[in-house]
Amino acid sequence: MTTVLAAGDEFVAPQLFVDALRDAAPGTDLAFRTLRSPWPVEPFGPVGGVDEASGSEEGVLKALGDAEIALTQMAPFTAKVFEQAPALRLISVCRGGPVNVDLAAATKAGVVVSYAPGRNAAAAAEFAIGLMLAALRRIPASDAELRKGVWRGDYYAYDNAGIELDGTTVGLVGYGAIGSIVARVLNAFGSHVLVADPYTDPARAAADGVELVPLEELLRRSSVVSLHARLTPETRHLLNADNLRLLPEGAVLVNSARGGLLDYEPLPALLAGGRLGALALDVYDIEPPPADWPLHHAPNVITTPHLAGATRQTAHRAAAISAGEVARFLRGEPLRFVANPEVLPGGAPQ
């Protein structure tokens, strides 16, 4: 019998992991332990040296016991946890990256760490399109004003009128699973799509009907810019005071990817000066933003509380991808998404 910890939360509940693994590994003799963290009711944060985690090291250790496998989304798997959980062999994290796992400590302990790319791609792509439309057509502002009894007929005045996606040049910074879906939808709207991504094959971009360009060219030419890159040390503040000034006057900027991709400090001045016509933000440099955050009351700013991936389908898909990795591990088959392949037999990626 293999003991498995299903360490869920208020989005991907422990039972989703249990059900998904039973479906993925029918007939396997499994015993389950469960743990539920308070995310997203309580924000994630750093725990014991890992980022974006929810819960405590002590809670994880108590729930783990002699479990050999763990499925999780937010539970902190730190150096302390690995030191005190010698039976652990695999952690399957149902996120695009295992940021809540101390990967160096896991590797040192010989624990395989898998992850779940693409789990929220459809949800995040749809949300990004929704933010674009909301910003371009002033949907939240006009709704709020009408609820106050203000009929803004002047939005029909030429200088105040919105912009269509049809025929508009939209720049996507990053062209992975999410960015490529966004591009497909924008192509259906009739947008001209630019992509800045050094890892994208030009032949693939051409086949997808998008134009692959350097970042600075994308910023100069795009009326709408949407971020879809992964956050790494190289991409932190990829958009900043220097290159944001390249945008056309009145451009719309959308960030539903990671707060760290964007330098938020220059945004109020760029809005006030008209370089930015609107901002639509789902992620922030500090989450949640503090009460004195200057963009809270700035005009032409749409803010949502990190909701891009919040669909029921995402929760089920995340659990299913992670359970599929566990099932392959139990059957001795190659895993699809391994963060530390050096711990595998032979040290080679599977």
Layout of helices and strands:
Blueprint: E1 2-8, H1 14-24, E2 30-36, E3 45-47, E4 50-53, H2 57-64, E5 69-72, H3 79-83, E6 90-93, H4 103-109, E7 112-114, H5 121-136, H6 139-147, E8 169-173, H7 177-189, E9 192-196, H8 202-208, E10 211-212, H9 215-221, E11 224-227, H10 241-244, E12 251-255, H11 267-272, E13 276-281, E14 301-303, H12 312-331
Parallel strand pairs: 1-2, 1-5, 5-6, 6-7, 8-9, 8-11, 9-10, 11-12, 12-13, 13-14
Antiparallel strand pairs: 3-4
Helix pairs in contact: 1-12, 5-7
Descriptors:
350 residues; five-stranded parallel beta sheet; 14 strands; Rossmann fold; seven-stranded parallel beta sheet; alpha/beta
